[in-house]
Design brief:
heterodimer, A: alpha+beta, Uridine Diphospho-n-acetylenolpyruvylglucosamine Reductase, domain 2, Enolase-like, domain 1, 5-stranded antiparallel β-sheet, 3-stranded parallel β-sheet, 30% helix, B: alpha+beta, Ubiquitin-like (UB roll), DNA polymerase, domain 1, 2 domains, 5-stranded mixed β-sheet, 32% helix, 2Fe2S_fd_BS (chain B)
């Protein structure tokens, strides 16, 4: 590990100052410390934000929740309100990592975790994300776990989070304390950038910008599910995952909020897929049509080709589960 | 870099490079070699200790970030002649072969029983709002952060059940 300066932030503006000039925030550290050991990341200064007051989960005026950025994955998954009203979020969190890691990992850090692409982790290999311009070893290499949607000629990395996929389906917003002093709220979808020709830029955050909270809108009517397909039953990243909030009224799909993990460089939401389902009676043919739209531009790279038919089947299974027996 | 924290109930002061992991601090600087370094990347769980009562991977924890925290590694759970119920159960049920993963398994399992007592759900819990039960499926899922390359898993599960007061 490369040497670094350590700064324990005492207040948000102190954290922003310390990070704006070459500092990197650290909270749970479950991903960052690992990447520092491998020297994939080598921050000059670590700004420890764990002493800031961002551990609360509060109800918002309109029936939603404001989740502090330092709330651990464990505490969020266990929150009685989340288990009751946003179960897809509890389910997504519980499907990720291990209890030891969930105890340390935070809400903000989970959103900002880096890809688990093997070529990003291996410094002997080319990687445009780690070393811009060096090429992509994954494109024609071991890409079983990598993306089929939203990729570019420079990068096919996937975003590894389960939590973020559920938050995307729930229409969450991210609260950001900008380094300049303003506080902003962005739809989670707008936090992330697609790789394009700058895969090293993963979010719209500038140096010193700090995620302070995630805001969930009020719960909506419908059934929720998080289905994750992976190479082993526990402690593995998603090959394909689907977070869904689905309602059926008068025999027709009245809500279909869907987000996908394991398919793209960011938690993936496609409003055209949802629009195709709305107002239609649920059927296998309809679910197939939704999958056609989702996967119209999907591109495999050999070892990950299987994700395209797998995503179709997982989507269909989730929609079947959530519409079966629903009030006609 | 000065760090002051509580280890097994005793306040300890350490002056170490900020790169030092909690695991290396325990093993190399405090002589507490019960916690083991397996992968050093949070994948195997051999380094599992309790921090403020919760199980975490000590290898992914920087010592300097734990100012004021209470750390309990395996040495704090019990000692020869005064084993904790979980340690005793691992001995009685032969919950190990080579023993390298055992301290992490025991720290992890000790915390896990407390988590179940507090009603924390897991990935395999059918009803998120019901009290979880200590089934084999639940134990396997909840212990998935602790690998045993000798594959002593059946006896580890038996030991955990015994410590929980069930007949295995």
């Amino acid at each position: 590990m490369r040497p670094f300066d350590y700064h324990r932030a005492t207040a948000p503006d102190d954290a922003a100052r310390a990070a704006a000039s070459g500092g990197t925030f650290i909270a749970g550290g479950t991903n960052l410390v690992d990447l520092m050991k491998l020297e994939v990341m080598a921050p000059e200064r670590l700004v420890d934000i764990t002493r800031l007051d961002m551990r609360g989960i509060e109800e918002t005026g309109d029936g939603g929740l404001r989740i502090g950025a330092l709330v651990s994955n464990t505490d969020l998954a266990n929150d009685a309100r989340v288990r009751r009203d946003w179960p897809v979020l509890s389910r997504a969190l519980l499907s990720g990592a291990t209890q030891q890691l969930r105890n340390k990992a935070t809400t903000g850090g989970n959103l900002l975790q880096r890809t688990r692409c093997l070529y990003f982790y291996d410094r002997a290999m080319p990687c445009n994300k780690r070393e811009p311009g060096s090429g992509c070893g994954a494109m024609e290499g071991f890409n079983r776990i990598l993306a089929v949607l939203g990729t570019s000629d420079h990068c096919i990395a996937t975003h590894p989070s389960d939590m973020a996929v559920a938050m995307m389906a729930l229409g969450a917003e991210v609260e950001i304390a900008r380094a300049g002093g303003n506080t902003e709220r962005l739809p989670l979808d707008d936090l992330y950038l697609l790789p394009g020709d700058t895969p090293e830029r993963e979010t719209v955050l500038a140096p010193g910008d700090l995620i302070t909270a995630v805001i969930l809108p009020a719960p909506v009517a419908g059934r929720q599910s998080y289905r994750k397909v992976r190479d082993r039953a526990s402690y593995a990243f998603a090959l394909v995952s689907v977070a869904a909030v689905v309602a059926v009224e008068d025999g027709k799909v009245a809500r279909a909020d869907l987000a996908f993990g394991g398919l793209a460089p960011k938690p993936w939401r496609d409003k055209d897929v949802e629009a195709a389902l709305l107002g239609q009676p649920p059927s296998e043919a309809l679910f197939d049509k939704a999958a056609d739209i989702l996967l119209a531009k999907a591109q495999g790279h050999g070892a990950n080709d299987f994700k395209i038919p797998l995503a179709r089947r997982v989507l269909s299974a989730v929609l079947t589960e959530l519409t079966e027996g629903a009030a006609a | 870099m000065q760090t002051s924290l509580t280890i097994n109930g005793e306040t300890r002061q350490l002056d170490l490079d900020p790169r030092t992991s909690l695991l290396d601090a325990l093993r190399h600087h405090l002589g507490l070699t019960g916690s083991k370094k397996g992968c050093d990347h949070g994948q195997c769980g051999a380094c599992t200790v309790l921090i403020n009562g919760r199980r975490v991977n000590a290898c992914l924890s920087l010592l300097c970030m734990h100012e004021g925290d209470e750390v309990v590694p395996i040495e704090g759970l019990g000692q020869p002649g005064a084993l904790s119920p979980m340690q005793q159960a691992f001995v009685e049920k032969d919950g190990y072969q080579c023993g390298y993963c055992t301290p992490g398994q025991i720290c992890s399992a000790t915390a896990m029983l407390e988590e179940i007592a507090q009603g924390w759900p897991s990935h395999v819990t059918a009803d998120l709002e019901a009290r979880p039960e200590l089934t084999t499926e639940e134990i396997s899922e909840r212990m998935s952060g602790n690998l045993c390359r000798c594959s002593a898993y059946p006896n580890i599960v038996d030991a955990i059940r015994k410590a929980a007061g069930e007949t295995a």
